[in-house]
Structure formats: C-alpha cells, structure tokens
Amino acid sequence: MRADQILHPTEAGLYCPPGDFHIDPVRPVPRALITHGHGDHARAGHGAVMATQQTLDIMAIRYGEDFTRTRQAADGVTRVGNVEVSFHPAGHILGSAQIAITPDKGPKIVVSGDYCRAPNPVCASYEPVPCDIFVTEATFGLPVFRHPDPLAEMTRLIASMAEFPERPHLIGAYALGKAQRVIALARQAGIDGPIAIHGALQRLCDFHVEQGIDLGPLVPATAKEVDAQLVIAPPSAFASAWVQRFQDPVIGFASGWMAVRARARQRGVELPLVISDHVDWPQVTQTIRELSPDEVWITHGTEDGLMRWCEMEGFAARPLRLVGYEDEPE
Amino acid sequence: MKAFAHLLERLAFTAARNAKLRLLRHYLEQTPDPDRGYALAALTGDLKLRAVTPALLRGLMAERVDAQLFALSYDFVGDLAETIALLWDTDQDQDVPLHQAVALLSNTGKAGLPAAIADMLDRLGPSQRLAFLKLATGNMRVGLSARMARIALADMGPPEVKDIEEIWHGLTPPYQPLFDWIGGGARPEHAARAPFRPVMLSTPVDLDQLRAFDPTDYTAEWKWDGIRVQAINDGNTRRLYSRTGEDIGKAFPDLLDALNFDGALDGELLVRRGEDVAPFGDLQKRLGRKAVGRAMLESHPAGLRVYDAMIWQGRDLRDLPHQDRRAVLETADFGSDRIDLSPLLPFATWDDLAALRADPPSVVIEGVMIKRRDSAYVGGRPRGPWFKWKRDPMVVDAVMLYAQRGHGKRSGFYSDFTFGLWDGPQLVPVGKAYFGFTDEELRELDRFVRNNTTERFGPVRAVAPKLVLEVAFEGLNASPRHKSGVAMRFPRISRIRWDKPVAEADRLETLKDMIP
C-alpha cells in the first residue's frame, strides 16, 4: 500500500483509510486518535476516541465526561481496522503521545503530534520510534530557534523577583502543560513558597498532582489580596479586568516565541521567558537525522525552513499544510 | 558582558521610568570598573567605536548559513543583529568582560574586523551576542536618556544630579573618577572647558496664586516656544547644551559660529528669519541631525534669545540678584545679530500682565515668565523665585478610536487612547494621549473600552466611535509623517465628554486651522 493510501490530509485532519480513523481531527468524526489534550488537537464530539489514559482524563476535565460516545485508553499495540497502532511518549505535555501506524503491508508511519526533547518534569520524555515516514510539526522550524535551558530562564525570573521585591510577577502560561511546567521549574529553581494560580488553572493543576507530580504549595489568585509574589495565569487573563487587582505587576510570558523580541513586544511583555514545549531547530533536525526516515511530512508551523533543510540534507519532505492548529496555542 | 546583556534586555522591555532607573542602578552597583563605565557610555551614546556595517555582518552570515534559511530567518525576526545573534552556531557562553569587547571594536583594523567579530561571537551565548552586535552597530535602542543615566548615578551616592551634570562633559569613558566620587572619593576636577551648568527652572502659576505677591518684586518676559539652551564660549571653546545637559551643538553650527562673546548664557534657541521667530516645527527640522546641509542652514537659521547670564567675561554672576544679572546683559555685546536679549514686559498689576498674556505679539509665544528681581540663579526647580504662566492650552473635541493596555501601575487597564476627528464622513486618527485623567476616570474609561470593543489586535482594541474626549495640547505642527497631516504636542485628555454626541466632535479642518 502506498503511503498516502495509509494516511493523508483531509479537511477534518489526517485520515487513515485502512484503519478508518482520523488523528487529531478538527471537526467531529466517527473515530479519532488523539495525540494530546491541547484544545486544537483534542476536540469534543467524536463518536469514539482512543488516546492515552491521561489525555482521556484531561479531555473529560475540559469538556465533561460526555466528550465522546466511547473511549479507549491506548495500551500496547492495538489493531484498528486493517492497521496496528501504538502510542509512544512525545515529551510535550502530560499524556502527550506520538502515534505509530503499522499497516500489514507498506510503510510504517509515526505521527509525532507536538513533541519536545528537552527534559520536562511534568511528563514522560520523548521516545524515538523508528519509522519509514515521520510526520513532524515545525512550530519552531527556523534555525533562529534554539531554546535556552529553561532553568536559566527561571534564574532570570528569580533575579527579577529579587530586583523588584514589591512587584508581583504575573507569568502567562498556557493552562495545560506550560503552566504546570513553569510551576515545576520554579520549584526546581528553588522557589518553595506559595505560588498563586488563576482560577482557570486549578482543575488542571489538581490533575497533575493526582498524577503524582509535585507542584508544591499553590494558592488561588482569585482573592482581592493575593499573597504570593509569583502568579501564574493563562495569557487570556491579561486582557481581563482580573489583572487590575495587582499593584504595578511585572508581566511575563512563558513561550518559545519569546526568543524573538518583536514577538515579545507585540504582547506588551516586560519579562519574556523562553520556555517551550515544542522541539526547537536543533531538536527537530537531530530527530530527523536520528530516525532517518524515507520521507518527512510536515504538519504545521514554519515549514519553509524545515523543507529547505530537508532538501539540503537529502531527505524527501513534503508539507501537509494542515489547517486548524495554532502555532503554539494560548 | 553577561550582566550588560541582561541589563539591555530588561531595559528594552521595561517601559516604566523608575523600573529602568532601578535596573541601571543595580547594574552599576554590582559591576566592576571599567566595565560599568563602558556600559554607561554605551547607553548614553558617548562610546565612540568603529561602526560595524550591516554589509560586514551579512558577509559573515553568507559564509556560515544557507542564503535561503538566512532570508527566511531575517524575514521572521525583522532585525539584522538579532537574527545573527540567534543564528550564530556555538555552544560556548563565556562571560567576556565588556572592556574586551570595547577594545576589540576600537582597536581592530578594518581588514581584521570580520574575523575578530566572528571570533568574539564564537565565544558568546545568545544574549551576549546580541549585546555585542548592538554595541558594534551602535544601536542600543533601550529608551534610556543620558539624563536618566545621571539620575541613576545620583541614586548611588552622595552627589546630586545637578552636581553630576555639571562635571559630566569633562569626563570620558570609563568614568573612573566619577565612580570614585560616587563611592565617597574626591570630586573630579573640571577638566574640560565650557562645562554644562545646572539650569534654573520655574514652576507653574495662575492668576489667583499671583495675587498673593507684590508685582513690583517681579519682572516678566515672554516665554518663547523654542528650546531652552545654555550657550557658552569659554576661551573660544563653544558649546550649546540642552537644559538636561545634552550637547546639541552639532546640529546648530551656525549658532555656534555666532557665539562671539566670553561667557555662559541661558536663553531660548529659536529659528529666526529677520525679526520673525519661526514656529517650533521649523526648529524641530534642525534637531537631531548629525550634519546640517547648507540649504537647511539658509532656510532655517538658528538664533538665540537671551534670558539670563551665568558667567560673563570671567565673572560668575549666579549668586547676584536677577536684576543685577539683567543689568549686565542690558549693556552686553553678544557679538552677533543672531543673538538678542529677551525684552522685559511693562506691567504695574497682575491684571496688566494677564492682558498682555492674553494677546501675545507672536504665535511662537507660549506664555510669560515671571522672575523675582532678587532671585539668585539656582540650578534645579526651586519653588518660588521663577514662575511660568503658560497660555491656555488649545483644545479639540475628538472621538476615541483605539485603546491600548498600559504597563506597570496601569497593567490591565486600557490607558493609552488614540483619538480622531471628522474628515468628511470619516474619523481619522490625529493623536494619542495617555494622561490627564484621574484614577477613577481611568477605571471608567477602561470599562467603556471593554464594553465597546469592536476588534482586537494584540494589546490594542478598536472601540466603537461613541465617546468624545476633550483633548488639550500645547502646540501643533504640520507633519507629513502623520496620516492626518498634523502632530500635536503634549496632548492629554482634559475632559471626558460623556454627554456629547460624536457627531458634534470637531473636524480635522478645525485642527489644521490652528497650525501657526
């Protein structure tokens, strides 16, 4: 079977005809395999969902228990229609997985979803899965993106908190994954006092703690007086009146985009922290070299840079130009 | 240079002045000599290094990165130095002392420069690479004035800002004697001729307040709408300083040539054509230029209207009463017809002066200055001896079009407002204002913006054109760079007209008619 008979892009997302399922579909479909719980990959309303147990739990937290008619937790190799599928850690957020598709005859395809190879205290590390076709994201697919050591970014945060001890530090971080990672990094970096969290983070932080991830003492940032110098909130909160309770805050934002000053300025951020849950340029190119697939398919992001690199390195590559996925969701 | 790189990065993203001052002070306190001195000079624009051209930098990249990947990267990042800092491939991150980087950029010959720069970049981590490249291209852009740098220095030790300003122009990087003085050592001697001296400033006043004073104790003169300067000829060393001590002489060679006297004068820099004083907009055309063309010198000749004398023919007059200094000026020869003395206004009562203020003989007059006859010349802004009684501001009723979230104390509040006027059936943006309202009014404006948002662009919101703002401003220039063709000076929101229908807001023609 040819590769594009096993997997090809459709308007609903990547579709696998022999297995009759979609991967991370952007609209309701009968059968969906979900790589991870971010809203642009995991949507409600499918007939059946297969994902890691953690991703299923996250979807239930976000959309309610009725987010799908039937669900199945990924466990080892499972036969779906005429292909075998298996889930492997992607190192992106808690529960995130790559999905490997092995047809009876034809190339093995790995859909990496969003993935990251930097150590992350809140999820299992990326695991390379040998394959013939590697489907990769290219969120940070330009050689300017070399994410620094996230602990060094934490050092900058701590230095700022010491330099401006009277100012609360409000760090914007996506509610699922990034927020918990920033908290865990802050703990690693030695911040052991209470950290305040915006109400929108409460349930997802609780879930991480239930999963055995130590986030230390968290207090709600919903009260009129918030008794913590470090406050974590989803970026959308900064446009709301919620911010007004803080006196002269330092506004920060934790994202891979903060490496580029113009991007940080657009957000009106005073303390940009370059902390990303996606592969940067060295990681994505190293991964492709390591797997050395026959073909590289690029789902979304700044694919032109990665296409050019594949061309120079002699990897056959093609962009899938999937729509509906955000660069790095906020 | 790691600390310097960190400082640059923080300054670039910090809008609030006090936060900037604290960042700089901490850096200067924690950094050893001579690096802190070089950093200070780099920030104040006093570090003269070999300018590295964009072509040289592009050449370095062409040898190292695929042209297509470079083009894609540059396109994404939008800044050459930053693109190179991010792209440069090295695992090293040595903390190279700033003075080494400065030495490299001042001592390396042209032929050896590309290799020396590449070698330095190989040793540095990304934020230091950016700092080094910004240093090399001479483009810091962190929004820190030399004045602010001196305030930060004054916060570090006993000398006051005016003391530092007074000796600043005699100092050269890396300012070791200055830091020694701040650290408790001896005051550096004035090495240079024609030093800047702290300027005496006035406080605002109105008619009610003036009635408490005896008019015979005061003189009055016009307050001209130019730039307050200190013009010095000290043994033929000629200098022109702004009131914050910036040396602006380079932009005004014609006036420097006209300083044919021996002394230090306080006055207003103006563009003058014969007896006529040109509007501020004409003067603005001459500002900030590194070199002035002959055509500009002829069409926009600079002149000086003298208000006061600090030094005259070797004598320091600053401790004399204002009327005695004035007497010296009355008989002085300034040596050029570009320089004249600001005449005193005749008045017996404050109402006389009010009448003069209400009808000035020139549009370039922005009010009257009132000075106690017995006042010594004291640097700074003492309360009492000198008053400024500015003309009433111009106002227009404009419509709020966009709002942007503020920073620091205004975080979370929409506090920067773009407003527009009617041009035919359309509202065209004419300016931006972010002060003039109380905290309570800010909360009301913020609520209005949130309830009337039509579109969002990052931190900016477009709002439905529903609210009229009375905008007060000090002056108006024709400006080809603004879409509306006009630029306001010091616009602020003087009243929120919740009551006024937007259809009754002013028209663009009304504003244009106010251009002097």
Automatic annotation (TrEMBL), chain B:
EC? 6.5.1.1
Sequence ranges assigned to domain ATP-dependent DNA ligase family profile in this UniProt record: 295-423
Q: Which Gene3D superfamilies match?
A: DNA ligase, ATP-dependent, N-terminal domain, DNA ligase/mRNA capping enzyme, Nucleic acid-binding proteins
Q: Which InterPro entries match?
A: ATP-dep_DNA_ligase, ATP_dep_DNA_lig_pp_1105_fam, DNA_ligase_ATP-dep_C, DNA_ligase_ATP-dep_cent, DNA_ligase_ATP-dep_CS, DNA_ligase_N_sf, NA-bd_OB-fold
Which transformation does this protein catalyse, written as a reaction?
ATP + (deoxyribonucleotide)n-3'-hydroxyl + 5'-phospho-(deoxyribonucleotide)m = (deoxyribonucleotide)n+m + AMP + diphosphate
Q: Name the keywords, alphabetized.
A: ATP-binding, Cell cycle, Cell division, DNA damage, DNA recombination, DNA repair, DNA replication, Ligase, Magnesium, Metal-binding, Nucleotide-binding
SUPFAM superfamilies, alphabetically?
A: DNA ligase/mRNA capping enzyme, catalytic domain, Nucleic acid-binding proteins
Q: Which domain of life is it from?
A: Bacteria
- Record-linked Pfam families: DNA_ligase_A_C, DNA_ligase_A_M
**Bilayer-crossing regions:** none
Task: List the molecular function annotations (GO) for this entry.
Answer: DNA ligase (ATP) activity
Q: Which residues form a coiled coil?
A: none
Q: Which NCBIfam families does the record cross-reference, listed alphabetically?
A: DNA_lig_bact, PRK09247.1
Record's protein name? DNA ligase (ATP)
Q: Which organism is it from?
A: Paracoccus rhizosphaerae
